[in-house]
Amino acid sequence: MIITIDGPAGSGKSTAARNLATRLGIAFLDTGATYRAVTLKALETGIDLADEDALCEVARNCDVSFEPAPQGLRVLLEGRDVSTEIRTSRVSEMSRYAAASPKVREVLVNLQRRLGAELGSFVTEGRDQGTVVFPQANLKVYLDADPAVRARRRHAELAAAGYKDSYESVLSAIADRDARDRGRAVGPLSKPKDAVVIDTSNMEIQQVEEMLVQLAEALR
Ligand code: DC
For position 156, which CATH number holds? Predict the structure, then answer.
C-alpha cells in the first residue's frame, strides 16, 4: 500500500504522515529530509549552492538513508545522524536551491523511488509525491491550512526546539516558501487531481489523523 501526503510547509503533513504510518504498521518516508540532507552536505562542503552542476554532484554522491527511531525516523547522512541539524532555519532556507533544481530533483526522485521499493508499503510526504514520484499510489491526500495557522504551528515547533525566530519572520518565510514551492517548473506543489483534500486550519492533529486512518482502512 502506498499513501502519499502532499501539502505546503506547516500543513501538519509530517506529523500526520508519521502517526498514520505508525497506526497502520507500515513505513514512513520523509522526502523533505532528502532535500535537507543534500543541502546540509552542500553547506558543509562549501560549494556555491546556486551552482546547479556542483549541487547535483553533491546530490549524486550523497548517501542518505533512514532508520526507524522512537520519534519517527532517524535521518542518516553518510551514516551520521543529522536528524536535528537538517531542521535548522538555515537549512530550511537554503534547501530552496535543491528544490528548484530539475537535475537535483531527478536524482532525489530516483532515490525516493528506490527507498519506496525497499519499503514496499509506506506513507510518504512531500510536495510532489502523488503527482510525480508515486502517481500509482493507492491513496493520495493533500493537506492544506491558512498561512497564518501554518506559521503559528511552525513557530511553536521552533520555540519548543529552542529556536528564537519571531512569529513574523516565520510567517514571512512560509509565504516565501509557498511561492517558490508552487512556482517552480519541475515538481511544483500542486493538488493531485485524484487527491482527498483536507483543510486542517481548524482541526486538531488527532482529528486529521483519525480521518486519514479511516480513509486508509477503507482501502484494506
Ligand atoms: O517538507 P520540508 O519542509 O522538510 O521540505 C524541505 C525542502 O524540500 C523545502 O524547500 C521543500 C522541498 N521539498 C520538495 O521540493 N519536494 C518534496 N517532495 C519535499 C520537499
Answer: 3.40.50.300
